[in-house]
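Bench notes, afternoon.
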Amino acid sequence: MHKKPSITSRWVVIDPMTYIGDRVFDYIRAPFPGGYYVTRDLALQLPEQLVTTPHIDANMSLLSDTLTLRPGFRFDGASGPAVDGVHNMLGAMIHDALYAAIKGGAEGLSAWKADRIYRQVCIAQGAGKTRAWAHWLALRTCGWLWRL
């Protein structure tokens, strides 16, 4: 079953594991090639609990299995040779937010977990297992090199 995002007076609530579609593009803008920003308060239900203590900063918060993004949160979309599209944009936005939380010192979160969530969301969004695994492999390889 493909649920649509629920919209409250303030939040757009999206479960990336059950929602498939391009509605997420209604809530992001691309001010320059390779860069995006969020235009509406988003609450994203993640497929698993990721942190042991909440991580909160000006444009995002991560509480257990819920990621909230505020207007102005910036992300760069899918990295490398991947082309930004309906099958990976939501995963890329979540992945970049999780990496920002890691840099901010979120306890219990790791690059491995963030990369795994990206793969799970891409599969749920219809990318196909082979494509999602290829993206995951590129994330793991390039991420390892980047962290050196």
